[in-house]
Amino acid sequence: MDPAKHPVEPPKKRRIGVLTSGGDAPGMNGAVRAVVRMALHSDCEAYAIFEGYEGLVNGGNMIRQMYWEDVRGWLSRGGTLIGSARSMAFRERAGRLQAAKNLILRGIDALVVCGGDGSLTGADVFRAEWPSLLSDLIAAGELTPEQVEPYKVLNIVGLVGSIDNDMSGTDATIGCYSSLTRICDAVDDVFDTAFSHQRGFVIEVMGRHCGWLALMSAISTGADWLFIPEMPPRDGWEDDMCSIITKNRKERGKRRTIVIVAEGAQDRQLNKISSSIIKDILTKRLGLDTRTTVLGHTQRGGAACAYDRWLSTLQGVEAVRAVLEMSPNSPSPVITIRENKIMRTPLMEAVQATKDVTEKIQAKDFDAAMTLRDAEFKEYYHAYLNTATPDHPKMILPEGKKMRIAIIHVGAPAGGMNQATRAAVAYCLTRGHTPYAIHNGFPGLCRHHADKPISSVREVKWLESDSWVNEGGSDIGTNRSLPSEDMEGTAKCFELYKFDAVFMVGGFEAFTAVSQLRQARDKYDAFKIPLVVLPATISNNVPGTEYSLGSDTCLNTLIVFCDAIRQSASSSRRRVFVIETQGGKSGYIATTAGLAVGAVAVYIPEEGIDIKMLSRDIDFLRDNFIRDKGANRAGKIILRNECASSTYTTQVVADMIKEEAKGRFESRAAVPGHFQQGGKPSPMDRVRALRMSIKCMQHLESYAGKSRDEIAADPLSAAVIGVKGSQVLFSPMGGDTGLEATETDWQRRRPKSEFWLELQNVVNVLSGRSTARATE
Ligand code: ATP
């Protein structure tokens, strides 16, 4: 090619390319959508590179400019719509030379790569070689120094897209929770037949060298035994496994047996442990009717779950911000997440740490492999071991340290309540504590003292709690009533049952209940025991946490509803659906769901609704429909929280839109109502329930043996567990700096400041609504 034929002048706008590489993962489309739209919003041009690195090497039509409408509807689509490939050509320098030339000729000097560790390694190799690639291109006469001059620096930002969740430095990769959802749905279905026939099932899950999917699915489904590559079982595992399974079935009465095996599972000599080996052992040694199920590629497909849509969107936005903020000397970042915080981590550090895990496994240094995987992984593994089989004689505490722990649900039911209770019970049994379930909240407790001793307070047995592993709602019953309705009676019952600690699971009512008990400690010694709240509410409005159990289940239920309803308008009708969400006075669910379904607007109580807003949005919709291209045409969604306005109800908003559209499009109201509380809890709610619950138990346990006054003097003896930014923390309720005084808006029943309010901005940027507002 004659270099003189190509423009020397760089384009007026910055050009950002995006590609997806390696194995496809649900959520990749959300990432591409966010990169494209955020780039356009930031006054850049966006380019999609089709078929991963193969497209970069081949150039031509495989590098295409992307416009706003091109990515419409992509959030709900599985796989990757710009294609992915494993490119041999890009592994060679000659291929990368061609790729560099293609980028320069298209004026692209920033690349967002979404893929696994291989793809990100390739990205880093490319970036490191970039100056020498440019010199070679000039030396070979392929490009002139003038052409190359504006492109001296290539900015690369990584997004981790992989179902395996094998990248160190990030809690989650784009796609891993969708895959986990697929696995849990399959195992939940197998449960029924396993129970009916008292069968054993050995289920093999994906994950290559990483056991994350296997571990999390074992937690979510209460598997009896688990095999992961990072922590092979000790020699003689065949006997251990058979003995546990026999105990669970014969002594404890469990009818179904589930064994989860990661595809990379091996023993301590690195010999593969396959599902068929395990099946043979169970069949021959125990005479157990055992079946194997290899889930295979179903784990990869399907629409992304709520978390992956949220993660890919926020990380895509962050990737563009990183591109724009990078200096020539900045190391390439990869966008990661720790707990709830999106962060940037040096790409090569993350890739190297990931490789180190594999090396440690190969060197049989399994403890190091577990530690390097990341802190959360190890914590989850131990939590699983503690709860799967309460049979660890060494873990039993001495008599003076054993506690009588009350478990109570307060407020509305939420996904994860049962799983938190199950984990608490299992942990108690492992340590020698006695778990008491208080049925039906505080009224249940006080029934005893009010009339006859009907036992609403019961010691929970392992088998009963084990069956709650995948059940929604609250099996022990939940109630909104507060202890203040009968403080005297509550104190008497605490004395009667000799409670040493209380584990409360629920929403704002649970928070209020613990606050009341704490404040009543002056009057009643019975409350001078450790009290802890594990937030569980779909409203996610508990001070002290950015995440409550149940909110993820609710979001997933909502997006299924929204996807289906949007699809119903895909053929010819131009329709706007105004969908009413729950959440009380908190707009969290509406906003996060808005982000996950790509809503054109979200109406929340924090902002209210006014006539100007509606009029602006109707104009925006009109414009939006005009620009709609045939291929991606589908219904549009506005989410309206149930308390956003008392005047502009969901029906009124829908009617106004219809009226003002003047026949160009129509509008319908839809109210999913209690459907949003969800059926079976999402895997994320299940695994987080386990982890948080165990932390709560350990927290309560730390007070064992202390005097009542010592306990009351410690602010953390009445606390809330929560995710705050990148950490999981206990926050004290009382005291000058406690949650009650500093972070609680008591009147509006919510935290004073909400981390998620800024997400409203992202929804508006990605729907284009913010631009429409700015041009008003
Ligand atoms: P998954 O985790 O789903 O397998 P991955 O990104 O790890 O995804 P790989 O097949 O390892 O998948 O890598 C994808 C592509 O990245 C490769 O086909 C190759 O084009 C490129 N790539 C990987 N490693 C390198 C490398 N060291 N140098 C150059 N390119 C590489």
UniProtKB/TrEMBL annotation:
Its main location: cytoplasm. Its cofactor is Mg(2+). Residues 404-776 are annotated as: C-terminal regulatory PFK domain 2. The keyword Transmembrane does not apply. It catalyses: beta-D-fructose 6-phosphate + ATP = beta-D-fructose 1,6-bisphosphate + ADP + H(+). Mg(2+) binds at residue 117. Catalyzes the phosphorylation of D-fructose 6-phosphate to fructose 1,6-bisphosphate by ATP, the first committing step of glycolysis. Homotetramer. This is ATP-dependent 6-phosphofructokinase. It comes from Penicillium canariense.
